[in-house]
């Protein structure tokens, strides 16, 4: 039985990846942070009565906790999905963002090098590493990266650490540069879930308006369960490498908002207000990815933009009071 550690197992991707690996017969070990309130809603259904699923308290910024789990499990695969993943918040907590998303990755790589060098390592890289206005799109593995946020910078540092451990120590240290991917499990402060939840609540008479920031930015939005299949595929290759994972289609935030409102028969302009507090000091105006390299391995996105919007709104209509 193969053993995998997932950092960030309580997050959107971590929960889908845990399900995928369990369905493939893995023993899955998930790292969770201790919080003052429960944060395990996305994996509660896995914790109860599942002999192949184990959880540990740990934090990427706490090196002893990470090396302790690695030396105990000696996993075949380590998926590093844990991160302070909110771009706007990273401007407010830049030091912590770098500590968890960059130094945290160093902590994992060093622990693997010393304690479990046979382990394959996957780093969750991000399209937010791109971002220079005017760069010709779509972006691929060779597009220059000049990040526009502390989050993007932290992910670029981690991307290069992964490369250094791959090239310098010969470790299987691989990475996917994932463009935005969404699902009903998306955190409520990201724009898609904020919109789908608000549209559902407005439709049900539980909310009367939706306040947003920049509606002109464009994002390449995919479906998270499909994107974790790409993560798994990247890890199963013979050699570590770099892969862009994207749909190749881009839409403005405004289009997402209009699609969601019109799906429930409402006009967005009656409910949406703009407040600068949701805007960022620096913005990435356009994200559009070219996934042809991973598509050669057999991965292809299936869910279309309007299907993603509708699936999220449908879920929130059925669960309006869920966080
Ligand atoms: P998410 O829902 O925000 O989940 C992030 C996870 O990381 C949570 O489990 C969180 O724990 C954990 N975490 C945060 N700080 C940590 C720390 N210091 N030590 C250990 N764990 C920590 O993010 P996601 O959407 O699933 O994304 C997964 C990964 O892919 C992240 O690294 C993200 O940056 C990256 N990524 C995401 C996208 C996307 O569009 N979703 C695109 C590109 C890259 P708590 O539950 O305790 O907060
Ligand atoms: N969050 C948020 N809230 N974003 C808003 C809002 C709002 O009220 N109004 C407009 N936006 C715009 C943001 O300015 C940004 O241009 C876009 O909506 C998407 O914002 P997010 O959903 O927060 O995602 P992101 O693109 O910044 O980052 C996500 O994708 C990255 C990959 O490109 C995150 O999942 C990152 O972790 C990930 O790496």
Summarize it.
This protein is of the alpha/beta class. The chain has helices at residues 12-23, 44-47, 63-73, 87-92, 94-115, 150-169, 191-203, 224-235, 253-263, 292-295, 305-318, and strands at 3-7, 27-32, 53-57, 77-80, 120-126, 173-178, 181-182, 210-212, 218-219, 222-223, 242-245, 251-252, 272-274. The radius of gyration is 19 Å and the shape is globular.
Mean pLDDT: 97
CATH superfamily of the largest domain: NAD(P)-binding Rossmann-like Domain
Major β-sheet profile:
7 strands, parallel
Shape: globular
Widest β-sheet, arrangement of strands: 3-2-1-4-5-6-11
Question: How many angstroms does the end-to-end distance come to?
Answer: 35 Å
Derived structural class: alpha/beta
One letter per element, helices H and strands E, the order comes to EHEHEHEHHEHEEHEEEHEEHEHH
Architecture (CATH level 2) name of the largest domain:
3-Layer(aba) Sandwich
In DSSP terms, counting alpha (H) and pi (I) runs of 4 or more, how many helices? Answer: 11
Based on DSSP secondary structure assignment, what is the total number of beta strands?
A: 13
- In CATH terms, what is the fold-level topology of the largest domain? Rossmann fold
- Helix fraction by DSSP (H/I, runs of at least 4): 25-40%
Bound molecule kinds, no repeats:
NADP nicotinamide-adenine-dinucleotide phosphate, guanosine-5'-diphosphate-alpha-D-mannose
Q: Unreliable stretches, pLDDT < 50, 5 or more residues?
A: none
Q: Name the beta content range.
A: 15-25%
CATH class type of the largest domain = Alpha Beta
Task: Write down the domain tally.
Answer: 2
């Amino acid at each position: 039985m193969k053993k995998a550690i997932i950092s960030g197992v309580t997050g959107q991707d971590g929960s889908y990846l845990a399900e995928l690996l369990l369905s493939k017969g893995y023993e899955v070990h998930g790292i969770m942070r201790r919080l003052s309130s429960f944060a395990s809603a996305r994996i509660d259904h896995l914790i109860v009565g599942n002999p192949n699923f184990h959880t540990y308290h740990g934090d990427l910024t706490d090196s002893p906790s990470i090396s302790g789990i690695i030396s105990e499990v000696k996993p075949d695969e380590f998926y590093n999905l844990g991160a302070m993943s909110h771009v706007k918040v990273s401007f407010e907590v830049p030091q912590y963002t770098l500590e968890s998303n960059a130094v945290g990755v160093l902590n994992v790589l060093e622990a693997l090098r010393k304690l479990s060098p046979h382990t394959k390592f996957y780093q969750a890289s991000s399209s937010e590493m791109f971002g220079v206005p005017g760069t010709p799109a779509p972006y691929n593995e060779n597009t220059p990266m000049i990040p526009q946020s502390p989050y993007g910078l932290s992910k670029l540092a981690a991307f290069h650490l992964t490369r250094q451990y791959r090239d310098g120590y010969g470790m299987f240290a691989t990475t996917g540069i994932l463009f935005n991917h969404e699902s009903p499990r998306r955190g409520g402060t990201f724009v898609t879930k904020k919109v789908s939840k608000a549209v559902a609540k407005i439709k049900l008479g539980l909310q009367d308006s939706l306040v947003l920031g920049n509606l002109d930015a464009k994002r390449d939005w995919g479906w998270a369960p499909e994107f974790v299949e790409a993560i798994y595929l990247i890890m199963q290759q013979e050699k570590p490498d770099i892969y862009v994972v994207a749909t190749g289609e881009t839409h403005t935030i405004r289009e997402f908002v209009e699609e969601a409102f019109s799906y429930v028969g409402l006009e967005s302009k009656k409910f949406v207000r703009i407040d600068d507090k949701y805007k960022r000091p620096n913005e990435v105006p356009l994200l559009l990815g070219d996934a042809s390299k991973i598509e050669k391995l057999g991965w292809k996105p299936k869910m279309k933009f309007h299907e993603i919007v509708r699936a999220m709104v449908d879920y929130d209509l059925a669960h309006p009071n869920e966080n």
